[in-house]
Fold this protein.
Amino acid sequence: MHRHALTDEQWERLQPFLPHSRTGPASLRGDRQFVDAVIYRAKTGMPWRDLPERFGPWKTIYNRFTRWSKRGVWAKVFKALQMRVDKTGSIVDATIIRAHQDAAGGKGGSNETLWVILAADSPPRSTRSSTRKGDRSTSR
């Protein structure tokens, strides 16, 4: 079994919600391999063209994915597999994103952003005259 592939238990749970195609090039590889390809792409974030050859032609997988999307198959699958949470249930996410030590605000970089922020946040220091320039008195 490959790293991003569905387990047998996951496949059994997912299978009833999928349309089954019996004709065309998509059915040659099977629904499970197609779903594994979509999951692989979603987990890795790679372009369609870079899918491993074990999944078959990337264009075939992409076209089938697009057809299922337009028909609302993915929306139905997500809704069907959505977790049921009771009133006392909760989800805790302990994701931590760490920045490199050099990203902690050291020297360097442009000051242009700072000036834009200062200009936007600073109130005007004086009030403009409501008198037009041409109407002002020139007497001394």
Summary: Residues 1-13+29-84 form one domain. DSSP finds six helices and no strands in the chain. The CA atoms of residues 82 and 88 lie 17 Å apart. The chain has a mean pLDDT of 74.
